Task: structure prediction
Amino acid sequence: MKPKRIGITTGGGDAPGLNAVIRAVVKTAAIDYGAEVIGIEDGFDGLLRAGGVHTLTPGDVRGILPRGGTILGTASRGNPFARKVVQPDGATRVVDMSDEVLAAIVALNLDALIVIGGDGTLRIALELKHKGCPVVGVPKTIDNDVGGTEVTFGFDTALNTATEAIDKLHTTAESHHRAMVVELMGRDAGFLALHAGVAGGADVILIPELPFLFESVCRKVCERASRGSKFSILAVAEGAHPKGEDPIYSIAGDEVRVARLGGIGTLVGRIIGERCQTETRVTVLGHVQRGGGPTPFDRWLATRYGAAAVRLAMRGGFGRMVALQYSTITDIPLEEALAVPKRVDLSSDGMLTARGLGICFGD
Amino acid sequence: MKPKRIGITTGGGDAPGLNAVIRAVVKTAAIDYGAEVIGIEDGFDGLLRAGGVHTLTPGDVRGILPRGGTILGTASRGNPFARKVVQPDGATRVVDMSDEVLAAIVALNLDALIVIGGDGTLRIALELKHKGCPVVGVPKTIDNDVGGTEVTFGFDTALNTATEAIDKLHTTAESHHRAMVVELMGRDAGFLALHAGVAGGADVILIPELPFLFESVCRKVCERASRGSKFSILAVAEGAHPKGEDPIYSIAGDEVRVARLGGIGTLVGRIIGERCQTETRVTVLGHVQRGGGPTPFDRWLATRYGAAAVRLAMRGGFGRMVALQYSTITDIPLEEALAVPKRVDLSSDGMLTARGLGICFGD
Amino acid sequence: MKPKRIGITTGGGDAPGLNAVIRAVVKTAAIDYGAEVIGIEDGFDGLLRAGGVHTLTPGDVRGILPRGGTILGTASRGNPFARKVVQPDGATRVVDMSDEVLAAIVALNLDALIVIGGDGTLRIALELKHKGCPVVGVPKTIDNDVGGTEVTFGFDTALNTATEAIDKLHTTAESHHRAMVVELMGRDAGFLALHAGVAGGADVILIPELPFLFESVCRKVCERASRGSKFSILAVAEGAHPKGEDPIYSIAGDEVRVARLGGIGTLVGRIIGERCQTETRVTVLGHVQRGGGPTPFDRWLATRYGAAAVRLAMRGGFGRMVALQYSTITDIPLEEALAVPKRVDLSSDGMLTARGLGICFGD
Amino acid sequence: MKPKRIGITTGGGDAPGLNAVIRAVVKTAAIDYGAEVIGIEDGFDGLLRAGGVHTLTPGDVRGILPRGGTILGTASRGNPFARKVVQPDGATRVVDMSDEVLAAIVALNLDALIVIGGDGTLRIALELKHKGCPVVGVPKTIDNDVGGTEVTFGFDTALNTATEAIDKLHTTAESHHRAMVVELMGRDAGFLALHAGVAGGADVILIPELPFLFESVCRKVCERASRGSKFSILAVAEGAHPKGEDPIYSIAGDEVRVARLGGIGTLVGRIIGERCQTETRVTVLGHVQRGGGPTPFDRWLATRYGAAAVRLAMRGGFGRMVALQYSTITDIPLEEALAVPKRVDLSSDGMLTARGLGICFGD
Result:
């Protein structure tokens, strides 16, 4: 029997396109299948408190397609299997609340639960599936690090924001003869720094997948200066790191570690500045990369994901995730998506292209 | 033996990303292979006149990555197999100049010729191949209508421009209670109208692949009004057309045909306005859709195409075209790319999604 | 005594920044003065129907600052002094409903009425003032044609949209060797075409204040071609017109008038194309120029206008309009604002600059 | 006698619109007056080295109108009255090279010298004037801190970049329940933080003109949380500072000063995070704010400034600066412009508006 009541929730970090998925789910369920959609607020937290769920009609999702954020809110640390609960005595204890979550789902009469999230949230969804919950997953990550799908929504929007910043640094770097460092998102995967770096014409790209040597980076910057190039642009993923342990760097007489300086971007800026005798400026884009309305690419993709998730639920494809393969939406087992985290393939045509253009990766 | 001198030319309509391809070709050839690149101006025309070719060094392509247009110029009607030549008496005659083109390529000592173009230009490239020219193709089309590749550069930029226009019409339509028609590019393929229509939340999408009935379109607009929606947005591909022959329409007492009114968008606007008794406004975006700097998506893709084209030439893969399949750059025979023109697949998940959202296609 | 209940309404054509004014009025009234704000829908129409007014709290205006359109809706033809009323027999009669409007204002206990609108709406506000209504005006026009104020919100946003379109045409015109015509808003005032034309580097600018000769325009386009320039950009205000009466033009054997072709832009395109033997493309931006979120300039200005309107009402400055003079918000009598419609000053430094750059105005 | 050869140079920090001024100067001089323009590279440095000057023709400035940066380069520390010169022994000495600069100007036969710059550069221009050089000034500052002119180019573009960043933080802050700090440019003047803060709907704005108390800032953030607002946005000018001396702050057991943490934004973020028990994220926009193509507002203004500077030179108005007053370009003595640095007027309608909306300035 086809689901009549579908729950939907968004978990983990924010990503442009979440609202587009929600809208597509609500409209497709209502218009195409006559089913009702129940929105659950703040990840799974909405199931554990009064007033945390409410019906979503097509009218409720009107106008949200081009908007960033999520009308449902998210809870970045809302794992119901390991939930931090404040005790009467003020201490915090970690409690397994998954049974309460399942009970709430049953009480709400949900025939299906669409979970939109990244690696962490989808892993929770899979565990709920093992406990009997009819989940369907939708991948979400601005880092592009979910496996089994070529790309997911949010990444293209973040790429636009990051590349636009590099473009702007370009014009001012040219006039000023400076080295410009921009720190981009990407704790474990360097897709954003790689794509934005190539699209923005960066000279150096540092990604988590390739630990770097300061020596190589500085050599590149100095070489450019000696060949008459007046500036250098360095795109640095927040998760990029020097080869070996985090050593102590001596900067202007002070001894510092990366953590102390507020990020790898700042460290790279200071060391380049000192060793290459060049004025250096650092931009830390931060959460600006998670914000803004989704690009048309992300809206188109997010809308297709949302509609496909409803169709998947209608077919009873629980424990599976919608995915993009060969430009078409398909679906795969959650286990498959979570088996291997996606990282930049160092032998991909993109990396080959970047190296062929003379971009330095510091390795 | 690997090519030492590579020619490059851009043909057909303009598309954002052409300069990114040119830059990648020049830099990859020079840095990775020590080869020289010769730029040919205005399609194949540059080979038929003095001063129409010149060496391109990495310095010559500095700064062109984010720029729209092509530094080489294009010639939309520059088929050397059927070239219009003005005779001494002022008359125009169609002449086969392909031998002259081949002779010029030989005289320039080109070991490879990279041809960036759409359907028409790639067909010429294939004919040149049959005559012995070592061509490598790079697909280019803002309509996304080249076969054998999932997508090509230019389309994403055009999609951004088109969707932004729909977004803007949305805000003003809401305030004004109007029907807004926007005519988009797409003479034979409706990808741009479909993607932009879905991404922009259009209510009606008309594409060349699906001849429409005015009756259905008007019914949709009227229904929305009667259900309390204060406005309707219609995304119309320039190649969309009513079912059957182009009939004569009676508008405000005048008898008109599509052609006379300056396009299908204007006709749709007038007929909706009259039959639905609603104020209607028409936007004709025109060549704005071909312009502007490429999006990061298009720059990343165009750069990879350019680099891959050089690698393909170095492998001696003449008569082939670089293509995107499964998120990876590969290459296919030009014949395969040209075998079947790409059109919107009416049973694709995108179409299914659009219909499930309640979008009207007028069929 | 200071007003305790303030009505607010938006009339006439849509302009980006209306929501920013509404938000500033509501927040300033509530936070700074403890006053209540009553939103009136669809111009003055909301006062003439049940359910057309409702209280606006700071919570109601949350998030609307960056949004285009107006949450109150507008009624472009909602003059209460001459309202079209459909009779029982189906015929339409024009009726003076101003007494009903005034009665509604009294019934609502409004101590002040903030009217946001252009020339037409502000004229109605003045008439209401003459009948005793405590109105305060806020100028609104994307054409920049309201007198007494240096500029008003909406214009900068429209200027951005128009200039961006010209920028995009530039890149594609360069590659294609074409004449590109873009028709911009401006029925009576040419500010938008003038500013966007100069900002976008247009070669020809046609504005309502300066009737043009086709001969001059064609001469400019031909001259450019003969001097080696490969393209021309023409920015044409929708209200631009040839000198003398609207003649009949012969195009490709057909006889046409401006009106028949759907606008002056299309006519200019066809005539240039025929007389200069050049490929010509026409873009009609239309209502895209009224849409989109306001620029930061417009948000800053609109917010200051809204706050100043509340302060003006608190001082009892009825019958006056807030205005920008010398970078500061001040206020002037509505009569003064409406005395002389604002037009492009043909001897201003802006016009002098444009002519000095060699831009052709067709005169 | 009217100048026949005009020098032009750009000094100090980069600002979007510099190229638009250069283009307007070159085109106006050539087309309107038949005069020649000589471009001087890197501030006054171009006059002190071989190959540092070259003729600029209209062809040389083609296409630079929409581009950021300056084709002439700048030298932020290029004061010819106090120039750092490296001695043969490697030591640096400060030397007065102004006579050499004047001699170069005479040798080049320049009848006028257009100097585009901020406070510092214009002060040098004034000193050169005192030594007999026929200078004309054009104000340039993205901080809007040059006196005598209502606004100058570059500011509007920086405002767009800053506001767009705040907009993006808004969407993600809403979903995540966080405090978001964005550090903006403005060492001495807070215009950018004030305008962007109001335009972006910030809750706290910290500017150099108003030293702040951490207590007030934290109270505002906590109050918002306690009233149910899920997030706070703080716009902080880089020159904002706590009342009193730079104290030592204890953060997570460490003792730090502002300078050590890499900026006031980071400090504000850490202290808010600790004292308000809220997750906090910091964005440091940095030189992104100086980059990018100029907005249409800035292009229109910069073009008018450039054309007006040529007209001023033609009238022999040396020692004066073009300025915008009452929406019109005029000119004032350089002394007047430099008399009092422009700062945010704490009793302006803008400040009044911001306070009336409930924005906290930490004072």
Notes: The interface with chain B takes residues 13-14, 16, 18, 67-70, 73-74, 76, 161, 164-165, 167-178, 180, 182, 230, 261-262, 266, 281-293 of chain C (CB under 8 Å).
